[in-house]
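Practice problem 4.
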C-alpha cells in the first residue's frame, strides 16, 4: 500500500512538471510577440498633381530685344505627378541672316511635349534636378534672296529668290536641367537640350530647308540648345507633410 501511494505521488509530480515545461515556451513566445515593435506600413505614393508651373525663356527675350537677326519668344509649362512631370513648350522665332551672296529669312511656330523625372525625390519645396525627353514639331516658311553669278560671263549677274512657303518638321530631344524655388511662387532654372533626328516635309526642289524654328540648322545632327527660364507656380493642392523620422 505505501508503495502504491508513493508511485501515485511520483507520477503526479512528473505530469505537473511536464505541463509546466510545455507551457513556458508558449508563454515566452506570446510575451515576445507583444513586445515586438510594430512596423509602420509604407505610405502609398500620391500621383495626383498639386499645381502647374508657367514660365518663359529669358535668352530668347534677350536676343529679341538686343539684336536684329532674331525675333522670338517661348512659353514653358509643367505639371507634377509625384516626382514625374508632364512638360510642354510653345514658341515662335524668325531669323534674318546674311549668307554668302545673299539674305536668308524664315519664320514659324513650334511646340514640344515630353516628360521629366525629378531625381531629388520628394522635396517639400519641389526643387528639381531632372532628366527628360521631348518630341518637337515646327511649322514655318523661309526664303533666300541671292545673287547668281553662275553664268555671269554670258548673261551677267542675276538676282534670284527661292522659297519654301509651307514646311513642317519634327525632331527629338534629351533634356536635363534644374528648377529652384526662389520666393513663394517664383522659380528659376535652366534646361539643356540635345536635339537629334530632324526631318522636314514640304520642301521646295530649289531650296533645301536651312533653319527650323525650335530646332536650328537642319543639317546639324545633333544640335545643342539651352534655355534659362523664369517660372511662376500656381498651386491648387498642398503636399502631405513628410512623416517624422523615428
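Answer key:
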Amino acid at each position: 500500500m505505501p508503495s502504491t501511494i508513493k508511485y501515485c505521488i511520483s507520477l503526479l509530480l512528473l505530469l505537473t512538471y511536464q505541463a509546466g515545461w510545455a507551457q513556458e515556451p508558449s508563454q515566452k513566445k506570446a510575451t515576445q510577440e507583444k513586445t515586438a515593435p510594430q512596423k509602420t506600413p509604407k505610405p502609398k505614393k500620391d500621383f495626383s498633381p498639386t499645381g502647374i508651373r508657367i514660365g518663359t525663356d529669358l535668352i530668347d527675350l534677350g536676343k529679341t530685344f538686343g539684336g536684329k537677326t532674331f525675333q522670338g519668344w517661348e512659353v514653358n509649362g509643367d505639371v507634377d505627378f509625384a516626382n514625374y512631370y508632364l512638360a510642354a513648350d510653345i514658341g515662335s522665332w524668325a531669323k534674318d541672316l546674311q549668307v554668302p551672296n545673299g539674305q536668308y529669312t524664315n519664320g514659324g511656330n513650334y511646340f514640344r511635349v515630353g516628360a521629366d523625372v525629378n531625381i531629388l525625390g520628394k522635396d517639400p519645396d519641389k526643387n528639381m534636378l531632372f532628366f527628360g525627353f521631348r518630341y518637337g514639331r515646327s511649322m514655318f516658311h523661309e526664303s533666300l534672296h541671292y545673287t547668281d553669278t553662275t553664268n555671269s560671263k554670258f548673261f551677267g549677274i542675276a538676282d534670284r529668290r527661292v522659297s519654301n512657303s509651307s514646311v513642317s518638321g519634327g525632331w527629338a530631344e534629351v533634356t536635363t536641367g534644374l528648377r529652384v524655388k526662389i520666393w513663394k511662387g517664383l522659380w528659376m532654372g535652366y534646361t539643356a537640350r540635345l536635339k537629334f533626328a530632324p526631318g522636314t516635309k514640304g520642301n521646295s526642289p530649289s531650296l533645301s530647308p536651312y533653319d527650323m524654328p525650335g530646332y536650328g540648322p537642319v543639317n546639324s545632327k545633333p544640335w545643342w540648345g539651352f534655355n534659362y527660364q523664369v517660372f511662376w507656380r500656381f498651386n491648387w493642392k498642398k503636399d502631405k507633410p513628410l512623416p517624422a523620422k523615428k
